[in-house]
Amino acid sequence: MRPWLAIIMFFGCIRQLGAEIPWPKLPERDGAVIIPAQEWPARPGPREVRLQIHYPGGTRASIGPRTGIFLTLHNWGGTDCAGTASPAALAREFNCVALCVNYLQSGPKDSIEGPEPYDFGWLQGLDALRACWFVFHDLDTSQTPFARGRLFATGGSGGGNVTLMANKLAPRTFTCVVDMCGMKKLSDALAYKLPASGGLDGRWSRDQASPNFLAPGAQEIRFVGHPAHLAVMKRLGPTAKIFSVHGLDDKTCLADGQEMVANMQRAGLDINPVWVAKEMVDGKIFSTTGHALGNRTLIPGHVAGKFLRADSPDALDRKTPTDFERREEIRYSTTDGAFVISYAQGYPVGRFEPAPPTPAYPDRFDLLRVVSPNGTAKSAQSPTEWEPRRHHIAAALERVMGPFPNPAKRVALDVRVLEEVKLEGGLVRRKLTYQSDATDRVAAYLFLPEAALKARLPAVLCLQQTTAAGKSEPAGLAGNASLHYALHLAQRGYVTMAPDYPSFGESKYDFAPRHGYASGTMKAIWDNVRAVDFLESLPEADATRLGVIGHSLGGHNAMFTAFFEPRLRVIVSSCGFTTFRKDDLPSWTGPRYMPRIKTEFANEAAKVPFDFPEIVAGFAPRPFLACAADKDDDFDVSGVRDVLAAARGVYELHNKAGNLAGFYPKAPHSFPEDARKVAYEFLDQHLRDGNPAVGK
To answer: Averaged over 369-379, what is the pLDDT?
Structure first.
């Protein structure tokens, strides 16, 4: 077993030892009880959690048919009800059994000072859910009338994160949740205490041999705004109306809160953001627009009271069964497997299931062959049957390039415009930088045509060749005029963007392991993905019409990026590749590219687990054009023809054979005029034809 799989199982696959600690009964009056919890592998053995329970009238006898259940969860480093709404007040105001939960690592000794990584919501969310189930189950089995459709949760800061995690792990259970300045996500900066963390330290490690190693899946499950996981929640039918309250001057958590809200909105969840501005500060409810917010006991009622109050005409009352009652499993796939929450026993039990080994494909040109998990192979007859092969190709690329960063690694772009120049024809060129990841900013040129003032235009990411000039060459400020395609396409009516490749232009990137990438290729891919994030955010760009173009290094950089980035709808590569079996493999092994081709695969094409036919097949059905000079002494043109011929079968499977094209100019390694004409018209055909708002 790979070391990181063993470690993620150590932190994610939890043995159920709860039976060693008996489940108590609800107390007759407000008070504390101890319930069993899942084992924490960092400290093996039985574990227990303390709850503070408050009834609407102070006694269990005060529970009535409209009495609900309300979790209120403390902040990072707190205990009981620190930094969250008072359970006694919630119980009285909203007619509920209110619970404070001393979930895993409560108190500063374990959460802030301890040697183990901060859990950041996984076991903590399960602890909170167990507390909720405990009350629900006790009332249910004792046949006490209560409002089983009125389950609520709230929390402040770290407790806001645990509140949202509990809702993620039990998406059909809560009726309303109120996140108050929920803690920022478990980004690389926070996990490894990088400068961008703001001083927060999750105490995780990049070292796969460390017991504190943060495996990809462990980071992904803890991201409440994970787009793929939100899609799972949406398919399951989430029941909670979600309120997320953040101060607009919160330097700690605002950016991550905005990202989470945007992701939930895109997923179609019932998310209701409350952005606290200065005019909302009243000294009673909100005392600041910073992280503290104000009176966290009053905030839930202020933003969601009409939905929480039992006697309100707008009171929410879920009619469907909770996850506790359904006794089913919820599964969230991750880069390296899946996290599963089982409700077979009513209360949740979480585990991690590692992904099965990726099957080998000795023949990189036999592209319709698909190997099933049990080892049998068949020829795909439809795009659906072929899709597993694409996943296998992605895994093969990651074996060589290193893992593609998961969504939790995104940081705020923090775009800074350094200069703006007006060019002839109403064209505007901006020089800017953006934050790609926790340790690096990327410089780029952006071109905006005058027509962008009237309508959103298609946009093209323009990637440089191997040149010290970096982004300046495609921007038309240096180098070969035939490679000024960012300028050319902007003049043609596209929004264009040209970033520096790592270590070229103004980039000082040093390819050190501390940055978290196994190859310069994957670093460049991620920089380009963040450029797509930026283009998607521009009011001048049409996010549904994005393409990518590049020559030489930019040609294969465009291809690698597009394989992992489906938002790039059209791909053009000039003199960017050939099949590995007709190439000089050692030329791919420098730090700017893929060192593992040498260190792990001995510079042998047969051992490298992917080749370009698979990459091109992975584009299907998206339009792809290869411009391959017939006298190219860098990338053998016959290999390009081989690649396109092999990939055509997959395009035919999608009924899109016309979307795969090759053009072979009679020239050396270059992007001559006739090839540019074909390339630009290819982009026109697929990104703007039929749209009268786009310039000609």
So the answer is: 93
Q: Rounded to whole angstroms, how far apart are CA atoms 66 and 175?
A: 14
pLDDT digits (tens, 9 = 90+) for 91-100: 999 999 999 9
- Residue 268 in domain: yes
Distances (CA, A) of 166 to 300, 339, 451: 17, 14, 47
CA separation for the pair 613, 632 (Å, rounded): 19
Largest CA distance in the chain: 89
Closest to 516 measured CA to CA, from 264, 156, 207, 53: 207
Q: What mean pLDDT is predicted for residues 161-171?
A: 98
How far out from the chain centre does Cα 186 lie? Answer: 11
Q: Residue 521 has which token pair?
A: 């290729």
DSSP-based three-state secondary structure for 568: strand
Asked if residues 94 and 68 have their Cβ atoms less than 8 Å apart, the reply is yes
- Give the burial class of 511: count Cβ atoms within 10 A of its Cβ; 0-12 exposed, 13-18 middle, 19 or more buried: middle
Q: What mean pLDDT is predicted for residues 670-676?
A: 98
3-state DSSP assignment of residue 430: strand
Check: CB of residue 201 under 8 Å from CB of residue 106.
no
**Torsion-angle region of residue 281: left (phi > 0), alpha (psi -120 to 50) or beta?**
beta
Encoded amino acid at 526, one letter = W
11 pLDDT above the threshold of 90: no
- Asked, for residue 144, whether it belongs to a domain, the answer is yes
Q: How many domains does the chain have?
A: 1
Model pTM?
A: 0.91
Residue 17: the pLDDT is 39
Q: Is the pLDDT of residue 696 over 80?
A: no
Encode pLDDT of 438-478 as tens digits. Answer: 999 999 999 999 988 899 999 999 999 999 999 999 999 99
Strand partners, 419: 431
How many CA atoms does the CB half-sphere of 307 hold within 13 Å?
21
Domain housing 77: 3-332
Domain with residue 296: its CATH number is: 3.40.50.1820
Q: What is the mean pLDDT of the chain?
A: 94
Could you give the C-alpha distances from 117 to 105, 190, 212, 403, 682, in angstroms and in order?
A: 10, 11, 6, 22, 51
At residue 20, the pLDDT reads 57
Average pLDDT for 375-395: 96
Q: How far is CA 505 from CA 46, 387, 434, 509, in A?
A: 56, 38, 15, 10
Q: Give a yes or no: residue 575 inside a domain.
A: no
- Domain for residue 574, yes or no? no
